[in-house]
Design goal:
Layout lengths: L9 E12 L2 E8 L8 E4 L3 E8 L8 E3 L20 E7 L5 E6 L6 H6 L3 E7 L16 E11 L5 E2 L4 H6 L5 E4 L2 E2 L2 E4 L3 E8 L6 E5 L5 E6 L2 E9 L1 E4 L4 E7 L6 E7 L2 E2 L5 E2 L21 E9 L27 E8 L5 H6 L7 E2 L11 E3 L5 E7 L4 E5 L5 E5 L2 E2 L2 H4 L4 E4 L2 E6 L11 E5 L2 H5 L3 E6 L1
Parallel strand pairs: 1-4, 3-8, 9-14, 13-23, 24-27, 26-34
Antiparallel strand pairs: 1-2, 4-6, 5-7, 7-8, 9-10, 9-11, 11-12, 14-19, 15-18, 15-20, 16-17, 16-19, 20-23, 21-22, 24-25, 27-32, 28-31, 28-33, 29-30, 29-32, 33-34
Length: 461
């Protein structure tokens, strides 16, 4: 859906039923369709006018994940759309071309609502990136891939649990879906193909590679193009992270995109994952013959009827953002706390511990930080027990270091999610305001952690 300034652009949160496995239907949610939502396309330098309606019996929000919009348009927990109501917005788009997304963000129900389908892709086009030399025929050589893990009962019904140990590690399913389909097969042209990967899972971390070992080029991250294509053989994405990769299918051979089952590192050397204390292998998709924890994500078959428009990639990518944050004026520290309230032992016996940041669990009527518009800061984020994906609303940032080691901007590009396994430093600035009645959020993007209180909020003025 191409969103411009004209009226008539609309998405509605609706309930429906969908058959994922063997024709067995299960109850799901979606944006104007039975599961997930249409891809929304917006253009830099133009207003995007859209109406969001709620046809459910529960409140929802529409959070524009990664967009640089004021707090009252961001779609956080303070912007609930009640059942039967709608919200009309005009979003002023002024940020680089990239792959973003949208999802509901109701406090305490984000995990459940996103899991059942209230999510979709959002693409921004920028005239400065029009000549980047990348595949751009959407659906032909430019393919969206929302990757999610889900769990099903024997009757094919979606199962979701946010209690006990599922809360502590985040809920992890045993089957992988791409755009709502289990292990899909995509027809691709015999040439360069762009895959827009979104980790839309509640908590699972993916380490993508191709089963035949073929290399690909990483061309974009969370918030725009990289300065130049990077040749890789695997790429890791935590929840809510995005990556655009370009794969060459010119040899005509089919290919399988697979992922390792990534355990969640814990302080003290333990693991949350297979072989550790919490399990979570993709039993429904496991296909490795060597016994390793590898599962299939998608298959690609060359279709002679599809034309490849790109044969080679440029040495540099036009339209890649060149960040200039200026000198930081202050430093802030954020500690992601797992051992608050009843802690892990309580969770093991079915309790609901309060998780938090800097010793405080989230409260909607408390402002945790007050920032100044246009001022650059360094944020240091630390994890006290396990690794977490840390997301900040309303801006994009540059990752400076992880565990004391400098990070090259050319390898990550601008980000809005940073994987924190120990400590991470980010350089950040806000150029949009956020009021106390509609603040921005920072939080762990393991959705069960966010719902349990690992979230804070801040104003910008």
């Amino acid at each position: 859906m191409d969103i411009g300034e004209e009226a008539g652009n609309r998405i509605d949160a609706i309930a429906g039923r969908k058959a994922f496995l063997d024709g067995a239907e299960t109850q799901v949610l979606g944006w104007s369709q039975d599961y997930l939502g249409p891809t929304l396309r917006m253009r830099r330098g133009r207003g995007a006018r859209i109406t969001v309606g709620n046809r459910l019996e529960q409140g929802i929000t529409a959070h524009w994940h990664g967009l640089h919009v004021p707090g009252w348009q961001d779609g956080g927990p303070h912007s609930v759309i009640a059942p039967g109501r709608e919200l009309e917005q005009t979003l002023e788009i002024d940020q680089p071309a990239g792959t973003y997304w949208y999802h509901s963000h109701v406090h305490g129900r984000t995990g459940e609502q996103v899991y059942h389908g209230l999510a979709g892709l959002l693409l921004i086009d920028d005239s400065e990136a029009a000549d980047a030399g990348l595949p751009s025929d959407y659906g032909v050589d430019d393919i969206p891939m929302i990757v999610q893990d889900r769990s099903f009962s024997r009757r094919g019904e979606l199962r979701y649990d946010d209690d006990g140990m599922a809360l502590m590690q985040g809920f992890r399913g045993d089957r992988v879906l791409v755009n709502g389909a289990p292990t899909p097969v995509a027809g691709v042209p015999a040439g360069m193909v762009r895959l827009r990967l979104l980790n839309g899972s509640n908590s699972r971390v993916y380490r993508f590679r191709f089963a035949d070992g073929r290399a690909f080029h990483h061309v974009a991250g969370d918030a725009g193009l990289l300065p130049a294509p990077l040749r890789r053989t695997e790429i890791q994405l935590a929840p809510a992270e995005r990556a655009e990769i370009v794969v060459d299918f010119a040899n005509g051979h089919p290919a399988r995109l697979v992922s390792a089952d990534v355990p969640m590192p814990m302080m003290g050397g333990g693991m949350m994952g297979r072989g550790g204390m919490m399990g979570g292998m993709m039993s429904g998709n496991s296909e490795a013959s060597d016994g390793s924890d590898v599962f299939e994500v998608a298959r690609f078959e060359v279709d002679p009827g599809r034309a490849a428009r790109v044969a080679t990639l440029p040495a540099t990518l036009a339209g890649a953002p060149r960040p200039d944050f200026g000198e930081p004026l202050r430093r802030r520290s954020f500690r992601l706390d797992m051992m608050m309230g009843m802690g892990m032992m309580g969770a093991m016996f079915g309790g609901k511990p309060d998780l938090g940041i800097n010793g405080k669990s989230y409260e909607m009527d408390r402002i945790d930080q007050q920032l100044r518009l246009g001022e650059t800061e360094i944020w240091e984020i630390s994890a006290d027990m396990m690794a977490h994906p840390f997301h900040v609303h309303g801006t994009s940032f540059q990752v400076m270091s992880r565990n004391g080691r400098a990070v090259d901007h050319a390898e990550t590009g601008l980000k809005d999610v940073v994987w924190v396994d120990g400590t991470a430093e980010i350089l950040i600035r806000f150029d949009q305001p956020a009021r106390p009645d509609a603040p921005y959020m920072y939080h762990c993007h393991i959705l069960e952690h966010e719902d349990a209180g690992m979230m804070g909020q801040f104003t910008v003025s």
